[in-house]
Design goal:
The chain has 12 helices and no strands. The protein is mainly alpha-helical and 298 residues long. The longest helix is centred in the middle third of the chain and has 33 residues. It comes from Nocardioides pinisoli.
């Protein structure tokens, strides 16, 4: 049979598509981890993703910033001698928004890759599974910290504009920043671990809400009941060990950071609260590493 194609008898053509060997330096694991960290931080706020992915994080951030902006306006215009709310207590007052942000965005960094099996593409590169877990956790930690720190910066700027004592305000804001960093470590660990176990976003969000919001409410109620109805302060203080928010608020109360708690935390309970907070972060991080190590071994 003869070749009836229009190109019959014509010489073949090789198209140069521009492929060539890579001659540059291969940066290796540190560069991959750094890129993954930045990408995770961006994705936590919906940057680089679809428009609807930006709605939840930025709406929550706007809701968290609005009261701080109002407070600044009142202080500057009326000439108040102090902020009506401390920096640390402002984070406590907006804990529902902070917890919702952590619960909603943790699945973005953990559940989605596991559910769609895109995790195997990451682990096919020279990036160990434990390092992947740590980098994702670090991205979520910084995202939560920024969520709490941005309103604090607004309040501090307002205090400076109002001419409040610079030394007192600097001391108070530094205390708040340290507490916010500890809070971000714990919230990222708890919500990240839950999201890594539950592959469906809805289940992960519900699980994180139960751990960060419902449990905190139960602990607060039980602390108040035990403090006002009981004969001992040991039980209400001990109950504060079972929630990330009560741990941070207890430490803030002991540190005189302007946060009122159902029961004062002092004496030997202060190092106990700090140790439990560190152990919670370590346990969640070890759980994340174990989870992704298991996925990476498949």
């Amino acid at each position: 049979m003869s070749d009836l194609s229009p190109d019959a008898g014509r010489p073949g053509v090789i198209h140069d598509l521009g492929y060539r060997h890579f001659d540059g330096a291969r940066e290796g694991t540190p560069a991959i981890a750094r890129t993954l960290f930045v990408t995770g931080l961006r994705h936590a706020y919906g940057l680089g993703r679809s428009g609807k992915s930006k709605v939840m994080p930025f709406v929550l951030l706007a809701m968290s910033l609005l009261p701080a902006t109002i407070v600044v306006g009142v202080v500057v215009l009326t000439g108040l001698g102090e902020l009506p709310v401390s920096y640390a207590d402002y984070t406590n007052q907006t804990q529902l928004l902070v917890s919702l942000f952590a619960a909603a965005q943790a699945p973005v960094l953990f559940s989605r890759d596991l559910r769609h099996r895109s995790i195997v593409l990451y682990l096919a590169r020279p990036l160990p599974a434990p390092l992947f877990a740590v980098v994702r956790w670090a991205s979520l930690t910084l995202a939560i910290f920024l969520f709490t720190a941005i309103p604090t910066v607004v309040l501090f700027a307002g205090a400076m504009l109002a001419g409040l004592d610079k030394s007192d305000q600097t001391t108070a804001v530094l205390k708040a920043v340290v507490l916010q960093a500890l809070l971000a470590l714990m919230l990222a660990g708890v919500s990240g671990l839950i999201s890594s176990v539950s592959l469906r976003r809805g289940f992960a969000v519900v699980g994180s809400v139960m751990a960060l919001i419902v449990l905190t409410g139960i602990v607060t109620v039980l602390q108040n009941i035990a403090y006002y109805e009981g004969d001992s302060e040991t039980v209400p203080v001990a109950l504060g060990l079972f929630s990330p928010w009560s741990l941070v608020n207890g430490l803030a109360n002991a540190w005189d950071a302007g946060v009122d708690t159902p029961v004062p935390v002092d004496g030997a309970w202060v190092p106990a609260y700090a140790i439990v907070a560190v152990l919670l972060v370590a346990a969640c991080l070890l759980g994340l590493v174990a989870r992704f190590r298991k996925v990476g071994s498949r």
